[in-house]
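So, does this match?
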Amino acid sequence: MPELGRLGDNANIPADSHGNPCCPHNCTGPAVNGSPNVFINGKPALRVTDPGVHSSCCGPNQWKALAGSPTVKINDLLAHRKEDATEHCGGIGKLIEGSPDVIVGDAASAGAVAKASATPLADASPLGKTTKPKKAAPAKSSALPGDDEGPPWMKIAKGELGQHEIKGKGANSRIIEYHASTALKAKSDETAWCSSFTNWSMEQSGVKGTDSAAAASWKNWGEPTEARYGAVTVLHNSKAAGSSLTTSGNHVGFLVEETPTHYGLLGGNQSDSVKVTYFPKSKWKLEGYRWPPGQ
């Protein structure tokens, strides 16, 4: 029985090829997006079309979940499981990791490809048809633990998952509320808002933030700390300056986990929304982990 995939689980393609002399490549890397409201072992569940990144090849280093359970849906998308097919930038691979105790759907196979499925499926609420979970051993590293774990501002931030900009003339009033916690008090949800979200989340949990809409303002806030769940994390990528993510090249969010290749952040203004995003270390420089003084 196949194990349900989660944010951060790895996919592999043994031979990712773009027709260059150095091809093919054996590439492995994590899923970087998942369900906004269905969590498995504290991590967003994977669905067909959810994206991932993989180690360097001769292309864009990306993959997406291609196939899933023919009997279980999550948010109207097929549940993506270990051994289900993944579409990489240079070929077809598969998900090689999954939940140790949540099993979904039929026997392990290549899975059903979403566009080929013509039969309506019952939506998984919240997990669809699964076997009864076994008691799991504590994980060494767990993205998005339960609300009773971690610092209080993470419970606040997790509650905002899915908040998204409104394109055009309108604005998401919640994002304007994030801005209102800073001195800038921007009135547009298209003004970079990662720092505003961080500041609002801190203040909602009773912690004094920087009151600034600038991500760089967090570099010297509080006290330095090691990589730990909930740490305010400041990153910099000069090539990202002037993008929808950051005007300065700086970005701030809350650390979910640090992997050998990525910083996983729960933050605002990530793909114009509140979500967990994995930033590659090859492109993003760590400016610092910070923690509230005396906490």
User: Anything to note?
Assistant: The chain has three helices and 18 strands. The longest strand covers residues 250-258. Residues 37 and 141 are 20 Å apart (CA to CA).
